[in-house]
Specification:
mainly beta, 10-stranded antiparallel β-sheet, about 10% helix, disordered N terminus
Length: about 575
């Protein structure tokens, strides 16, 4: 071999992507007895590239547990005082969601969401056993969100490339509904409990009292918590990223491009490109336009990106602080009998239904960030997606993954939710949902190397009808496949995508799955008790020589099978992890 040939061969080897490790989890059976349906069961071992390690599910905390000086999951108001439940007791949230692991200097912290109204996040310090990798909580405290008007329904989250916790605020309040309300009964009672954050009792308040403390435009944004080595924290809401039913925001490896998923009916997919790496306070927001290329299964689409303009968090915060009404941003007319809109008004169909809107002069930036979904639809983006949930990324293959918990409503052919909108998505309904893969590449016009170009169904659940008397009766999705996929995480450097479920009748007991990208096969790796949800699985390949798959169990016996609860303590949420793994 000549020197030139050797150099070329060496260059080719260096340029070739590293082969992904093969991951094999010991499978977990579908729960088919009352005992198993009450238990948390996880894989007992994992084999990574031929090396086997013993693992399992390890609980770090449960709602109501006293840790150090504080009670984990106790909701607090703007003054740091306990929030009270209707029965007069202190409100302990069982709605634990995303829980991060944050190495900071020589210490290890975790931030945990409580998906409540008011919402809460707890900052906990962890102890890591150097010999075994086991984690335990040694202290905890509630994070103070009073500087941003409180926290609303924090759902999933992620960890930024710079090591901060990126959270969320789901199911943003409908400002039009609140502005149009004539009595409190005209307002969705889902919003009422937030008044407790400001010391107002929902049981005795009237509309005036509610409106005096509740600013709908203060909620629905990605949130960021930075933790210092001394245990202090700082809080920000990233108003420039837009206001949605934020499931989560996920920052790509360039530390500038972020994808934001939108949970609900007739929602969209969004991308934010920051002006500067590591700073999400200023940038340009985009909404996806889907062009369907196949209607088979979960479908396939080309993606283009509609610009919603540039903004900074400071300028949007100034608008929010002015407490604008919906009518300060939009003019409205009712659709005609033929569903058309008057001249000068744009016909859209979003989570709020069919509307005819016109942005008032000079309010375009406010509309883009405070009514992001409505404005995106007016600009021609697609707002037909249903229960858009988790998002994760595999850098080795430049593939983004997005979970759609259900293919229904506006995604279905002929759906009434398409009236007044463009009807970009026309698929057969699938109540069991699907996970999509999106190829990512460079877009010089947008100025990012991480722009999604297309979207194709990767793996879908299969509706099934198990006969009465079968051990699987009551499950409406195939027990050997996914049901209502929720949050996702990719085991970086491996061939494995992790899929968590949030399902009611699809599977009686929610599960977490490992999907082998090479074989296209699923392995059940964890099941949870009756009525619970698996929230925000998240993979950490190497924390001080150990790997972890975080896995939270939300509201046991709370979404179904409430009658099976025997001991109130069993209803407390869990935060824990599957592992520890050998570090990558």
């Amino acid at each position: 071999m000549t020197r030139k040939t050797l150099l070329l061969a060496t260059s080719a080897l260096l340029a070739a992507p590293a082969l992904a490790d093969t991951v094999e989890f010991a499978p977990v059976n579908f729960p088919n007895t009352d005992e198993l349906k009450r238990a948390v069961v996880a894989s007992e071992s994992v084999t990574i590239d031929g090396k086997t390690a013993e693992i399992g599910y390890h609980v770090m905390a449960r709602s109501g547990q006293k840790i150090g000086d504080n009670t984990w999951g106790l909701l607090t108001d703007e003054n740091g005082k306990p929030v009270m439940s209707a029965d007069g007791s202190e409100h302990i949230s069982v709605d634990t969601d995303f829980s991060s692991l944050l190495p900071v200097g020589d210490r290890l912290f975790s931030v945990s969401h409580f998906e409540s109204r008011p919402g809460a996040m707890y900052l906990s310090e962890l102890k890591q056993d150097a010999a075994t990798g086991q984690l335990s909580m040694i202290s905890t405290k509630p994070i103070d969100f009073s500087s941003v008007g409180g926290l609303w329904v924090p759902c999933a989250g992620s960890v930024t490339p710079w090591g901060s916790h990126l959270g969320s605020e789901e199911y943003e309040p409908d400002a039009r509904e609140i502005a149009d309300a004539e009595t409190l009964a005209d307002v969705d009672d889902y919003f009422y409990p937030m008044a407790r954050y400001f010391g107002v009792d929902p049981a005795t308040m009237d509309l005036a009292a509610f409106k005096s403390v509740f600013n709908p435009y203060a909620y629905g944004f990605p949130t960021e918590i930075k933790v210092s080595e001394d245990g202090s924290d700082s809080v920000a809401k990233h108003y420039a990223m837009g206001r949605l039913a934020v499931e989560l925001a996920y920052v790509m490896p360039d530390s500038k491009t972020a994808y934001i998923t939108d949970d609900g009916t007739n929602v969209g997919l969004y991308m934010f490109v920051a002006d500067a790496a590591g700073d999400l306070n200023a940038g340009t927001l985009y909404a996806a336009k889907l062009t369907q290329t196949s209607g088979d299964g979960a479908g396939a689409f080309d993606l283009s990106w509609v610009s919603l303009g540039h903004a900074t968090s400071d300028e949007i915060k100034a608008v929010i602080d002015g407490k604008p009404a919906f009518s300060d941003i939009f003019d409205t007319v009712a659709p005609g009998e033929d569903e058309s809109c008057a001249a000068g008004f744009t016909s859209i169909n979003t989570s709020a239904g069919h509307e005819c809107l016109k942005v008032k002069d000079g309010m375009e930036v406010a509309a883009s960030r405070l009514e992001t979904r409505r404005y995106a639809a007016m600009m021609g983006a697609t707002t037909e997606l249903r229960k858009e949930e988790g998002v994760t990324f595999d850098p080795a293959s430049s593939t983004l993954f997005v979970a759609m918990s259900e293919i229904g409503k506006g995604m279905e052919v002929g759906a009434k939710q398409d009236v007044g909108g463009p009807d970009d998505v026309q698929l057969a309904g699938n109540a069991c949902g699907a996970v999509y893969r999106l190829s990512v590449g460079t877009d010089s016009g947008i100025g990012s190397d991480y722009v999604a170009k297309d979207m194709t169904g990767l793996v879908a659940g299969t509706p099934s009808d198990y006969a009465e008397g079968s051990e699987y009766a009551g499950n409406s999705c195939d027990i050997d496949g996914i049901a209502n996929p929720d949050n996702l995480t990719y085991m970086t450097g491996t061939n494995t995508l992790i899929i968590g479920e949030d399902t009611g009748s699809g599977h009686q007991n929610d599960a977490i799955w490992a999907y082998d990208m090479d074989a296209g096969s699923l392995t059940r790796i964890m099941t949870t008790p009756y009525g619970s949800e698996t929230t925000s699985p998240y993979y950490y390949p190497n924390i001080n020589g150990w790997g972890y798959l975080m896995a939270v169990i939300q509201h046991p016996y709370g979404e179904s099978d409430e009658d099976k609860l025997a001991d109130p303590s069993d209803a407390m949420a869990y935060v824990g992890y599957v592992g520890p793994f050998p570090a990558k």
